Inverse folding.
């Protein structure tokens, strides 16, 4: 099935309260199951769902321990599928632990129904934790990596 047709079908389903849809044609069969049954609230949200590269959300957490008063940011998945840290099987990871990540930099890929989506960071910071291993299934809004926010993130090497 062509990606354009698939996106049209997904847009139509997203504007309804349907949880599940199965479409069968002479040469293909597709089943779409939506985890979140609420229709999208705005055109911007709808564009974020079907847009490639996948824009990631960021969840901000503050570590309250006295020795670490730094802000931590989780980069969240905006797609359901399988997360990979490299562009090819058994390849080098796109980003590595303790590396500085820039806003808009690719951090991995998510494969959904044989469609590859680039996962880009929406914030800058130092990669402090990898929360999803290579090849693991991921859900919508699942944290993928954790960054430490701030200008001091570039120069630190003592994690």
């Amino acid at each position: 099935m062509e990606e354009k047709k698939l996106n049209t079908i997904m847009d139509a389903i997203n504007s309804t309260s349907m949880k599940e849809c199965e479409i069968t044609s002479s040469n293909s069969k597709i089943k779409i199951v939506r985890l979140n049954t609420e229709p999208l609230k705005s055109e911007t949200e709808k564009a974020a769902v079907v847009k490639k590269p996948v824009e990631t959300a960021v969840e901000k957490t503050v570590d309250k321990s006295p020795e670490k008063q730094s802000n931590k940011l989780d980069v969240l998945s905006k797609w359901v599928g399988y997360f990979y840290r490299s562009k090819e099987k058994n390849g080098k990871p796109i980003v590595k632990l303790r590396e500085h990540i820039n806003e808009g930099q690719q951090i991995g890929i998510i494969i959904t129904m044989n469609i590859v989506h680039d996962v880009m960071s929406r914030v800058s910071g130092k990669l402090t934790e990898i929360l999803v291993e290579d090849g693991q299934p991921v859900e919508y809004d699942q944290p993928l990596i954790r960054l430490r926010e701030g200008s001091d993130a570039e120069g630190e090497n003592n994690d």
Remarks:
- The CA atoms of residues 40 and 46 lie 6 Å apart.
- Helices lie at 3-14, 43-50.
- The longest helix spans residues 3-14.
- The two ends are 46 Å apart (CA to CA).
